C-alpha cells in the first residue's frame, strides 16, 4: 500500500484475539497498524475517526472460494462488483475460482484476474489456477507457470478431478511450490448428467432426479489417501454431508503427517433440502442442500476443527440462467455479503463456537491454506491494517436487491439474519463502511 496523507483512528473496539493489555484503539497509516498514541502528532496528516464502541475488531475475512465470473460472464459478476460485495461482507481477500471463460489455466490468465482485482482496489483478489486445461479433467494445466505468478491454490471447481491418476499427479506437482489442490469432491458417474439435487426422501416426493451423498464422501476417501501417498496438500471444497465429515475425521487421525483441510459454505450450515418444495431454483446449488442431519454434522465439524474453514462459494448467476424450471436452472447462490451473518447465526448464537473460532475459520485458517502472509494476522502494532469491524448484535432482513453484486440469486432474501459487518479496512484502505 502506497503513502497516504490520511490516518484512520478506530476507537473503542474490542480486539478478538488481542492481548489483555492491548487497548481497543487502532491507528491506521500507510497500510499498517501503529501505536494509537501517534494519532494527531503529525499535524500535516488528516485524521479520520471511526467510533467503534461496542464493536469487535477482527482480522479481515478471507474467502477461499468464490466465483467472480470475469472474464466471460460479466453479465453475472465482474471482479470489481464481486470485490465490492466481498468488502461489504467484511472480506479483505478473496480467491477467485478458475471456471471463467476462458478458464484460468495459464499464467497470463492468472495475471489478468489479479490485475483486475488491483484495478478495483477493494481488497486482494487472488486467482485460483485450474488443475486441468480447460477444466476438462484430461491434461494438467500450466501449474508451475501459474505458481510463478503467485498462484498457490489449484482447483477444477465446478468439476471434480475424477481421474485418480490425474489427481495424484496434480498433488505431486504442486508439492514442489507448496501449492494445494482444492477438490470439488463429486463422483461424476454417481452424480450423472440430469441430477439436480440431493437424492433422498424429498427428491422422491418432488420427482426430481437426485444424486447420492456417497458421490461426495467416496471421492474424499480416495483423495485423502492420495494426499497421504504424495505427502502433498489437499483441500476439500464445500463439504456437505455427515459421511464426508466422518471420512475427514478419520483421515486427519489416520494421516497426521498429511496436510488435509476442508471448508463448509454458509448455506450448508443453515439451509436444508426441504426448501426445494417450492421448486424455486434459487435453492439449486452444487453440492445440493442436504437433510437436517447433515447440517448438524457440518456444524459440529466446523466447531471441532474437522472442517477448518468457512468459504462462501459465492456463485452469482444472471436471471436468464437461473429463472428456469428447477431441473434446467444453473447451480449456485450468492453469498459474499451474508456469509459472516450466517456463521454468527449458526455457530455463535447456538453456542457452538466463540468469536475466536469464528476468526480462525473465516480469516486465519483460510489465509494459511492459501499462503497469504499479509492476511489473517493478529491486530497488533506493525501488522497490516487489514481488519473488519463487527457489531455482534445487529440484525437485519436480507433484501436481494440491496447488493453490490450484479446477481440476485440470493437464498436469504426476506430472512432476518445477523448483520455484523460495519466497516472493512484492506491494507489500510477503507473499502466498506455502513
Ligand atoms: N456451487 C455451485 O452451485 N456452482 C458453482 C460451481 C461449483 O462451486 O461447483 C458455479 O460456478 O456456479
Ligand atoms: Zn464446487
Ligand atoms: Zn464453487
Would you count the extended β strands for me?
A: 21
**CATH uppermost class:** Alpha Beta
Strand order of the largest sheet: 2-6-17-20-21
- Strand content is 15-25%
Q: Tell me the span between the first and last alpha carbons.
A: 23 Å
Cofactors, ions, other ligands: N-carbamoyl-L-aspartate, zinc ion
Biggest sheet architecture: 5 strands, mixed
CATH fold name: TIM Barrel
**Helical percentage:** 25-40%
On the 0 to 100 scale, the average pLDDT is: 97
Number of helices: 13
Binding site for substrate: 67-69, 99, 286, 317, 331-332
GO biological process, one term: purine nucleobase catabolic process
Keywords: Hydrolase, Metal-binding, Pyrimidine biosynthesis, Zinc
Cofactor: Zn(2+)
